[in-house]
Amino acid sequence: MKTSLQWTFECLFGCHHQQLSRVFTIRRRTYQVCVECGREFEYSWDSMQVTRPSVAAMARAPLNSVNQAEASAI
Predict the structure, then answer these.
(1) Domain residue ranges of the chain, discontinuous segments joined by +
(2) Strand pairing category for 29-33 and 24-26
């Protein structure tokens, strides 16, 4: 269960949408995609659920996913 602080940070800095795609496994990577914003979430077959990173992990993670349309605009 999330604390209110975790929920607040996720809404401010992460994806807060609820609609996820089906599970994809491509090149040994298993994930789901948010239908509304396109963010990818790692999926664990062991626990059969999305493994969302902690707020600290999101802050450390580099921004490496840029849409092709965004890249051409830059």
Answers:
(1) 4-62
(2) antiparallel
